[in-house]
Design goal:
Elements lengths: L1 H16 L6 H4 L1 E8 L2 E2 L6 E5 L2 E6 L2 E2 L3 E2 L1 E3 L2 E3 L4 E7 L3 E6 L2 E7 L1
Length: about 110
């Protein structure tokens, strides 16, 4: 039992140590998708834009209809989908959405 408690505490602490700290102000702006999984995506010029609480996907220069989002810790909640922010340093971020991993760079 003691080993289980120690293992549980280590798991909780490791989760806290690696939690991503990001705010809505940090997200504001345009983010170029440079990788989708292991595939280089820079030449596709797809962008995520965060502005005034709205998230817009821009693909090949054409913007899709913007969606309202809520930032809950390290999760961007679009209502119909959630984007988990895995890494964030202000200039780049890695995310996971529906099993896909994206690497983005702030423009």
């Amino acid at each position: 039992m003691k080993k289980i408690v120690i293992l549980f505490c280590l798991m909780v602490l490791s989760t806290l140590c690696f939690a991503v700290d990001v705010s809505e102000a940090d997200l504001e702006g345009k983010w170029l998708i440079v990788k989708m999984g292991s595939m280089d995506a820079t030449d596709m010029e797809d962008v995520w834009q965060f502005k005034d609480g709205m998230w817009t996907a821009i693909s090949s220069g054409k913007a899709l209809s913007p969606d309202k989002y809520n930032l809950n810790g390290d999760v961007i909640d679009l209502g119909y989908s959630k984007i988990k922010i895995v890494e964030f340093n202000g200039n780049s971020m890695k995310t996971k959405q529906s099993g896909f991993e994206y690497t983005l760079v702030k423009q």
